[in-house]
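Q: What does the assembled structure look like for these inputs?
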Amino acid sequence: MSRSERDTQHHNVAQAAIPGRVPLNRDRVLRAAVVLADEVGIDSLSMRSLAQRLGVAPMALYKHVASKEELLDGMVSVVVAEIDPPMPGLDWKRAVRERVLSARHALLRHPWAPHVIESRTQAPLVVLDYMNSLIGTFLAGGLSADLTHHVMHALGSRMWGFTQEVFPTPQPPAERFPHIIEIASVGEHDDKSAVGRGCDDQFEFEFALDVLLDGFERLHNQGWTSTNPVRTASP
Amino acid sequence: MSRSERDTQHHNVAQAAIPGRVPLNRDRVLRAAVVLADEVGIDSLSMRSLAQRLGVAPMALYKHVASKEELLDGMVSVVVAEIDPPMPGLDWKRAVRERVLSARHALLRHPWAPHVIESRTQAPLVVLDYMNSLIGTFLAGGLSADLTHHVMHALGSRMWGFTQEVFPTPQPPAERFPHIIEIASVGEHDDKSAVGRGCDDQFEFEFALDVLLDGFERLHNQGWTSTNPVRTASP
DNA sequence: ACCTGAACACCGTTCAAGT
DNA sequence: ACCTGAACACCGTTCAAGT
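A:
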């Protein structure tokens, strides 16, 4: 780092203590939005509340993001960029597994991320980078383009390391729902790992991920193609 | 049906032609909300627009639903109640498969249903009925309560017959995303079956569902338990 | 060039009042 | 008992104006 660069940084840091003196930029807006959403929840994140946090008029934000939708796209980009790069030297199955669990690690720090990612209509570029990289891992492992296509669909939003939880929070009455009660008691996992409401825990996620990856591997070994989808389930 | 009951019905039907004369009830509110959301989209469904459609002041709705959240719960209940009952005489795997595809048939008529179902914090009772019934099918098929628990988690929101689509709508640039381009061309399915934006098509859904069900069957045949999860993927 | 203030067209929901 | 109208505390976003 050159002397002038260091000075500029110090200058900015000094200005940051004086509210409103550091000019806004896109990155500052997006990072502040991520922090604010982490703190107060995505429902309480508004253009107005974000502007207030930044000590700026609401309309100042529109110089850096065209709309709230673009703000949400940008927030997704920030957290997806935190996902670790692929680990080298692993076979495709382990490589995908580790990558997805790394995505889980990065995204589940932000309880709002699952919902916001799934609500994107246009995937931000870093999202496509991640998907492109995952696809590359399957292809490098020898899976056909055909199988890889369907395997990526089957993986679905689980590629981000989360699944929206579908089980009810309160215990329902046993008379009407005997089967739910019957299976509810098994496998009591730690509630702490469920980040925010509506997220799975680690054991259930890995179980589902492994069922899928094992299935993909079996289809690959069988030479599965979409025009000749032979498939059996004997042990 | 007694004479007086018939007369009462005729009376109501006659009144229905005069807007605003039939007293509102919860069912009329919920059904109107479902129809309106089908027509204008869930984002344009507001308490005010629904009230206007019903020819009533916005606050009249609050006699029948406590809040907009409760309205959404009720709308989910309406569409989930349309799912066919389980088919008798099938083994557990076929029974689950048919039931889930029937759920798909019912829910995908309402493009907003996936998003709204996944956003429920408290599952409506008919949602628990459906889950209880699915669990019962696994248990009746001989799966342990242990395995069934994890299998239900792994099935996740796919039990409703849909998965949120994760692929981008516009074709991205080939230079930056070569692998996406490579697999994009395979298996061009009909776009018509993708109900609204963001929903999978039939082939991809069945592929993923079968990978999961085949995996569940294999674990069941192997005598899998959560404390002794032996699992291999040889063909 | 970058930010502001007022205004517009919406929300869900409260409250007190009408019939 | 059931519905209404006005009002409150919010939204995202436009526009014209400020420096």
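Residues 202-221 of chain B form the longest helix (20 residues).
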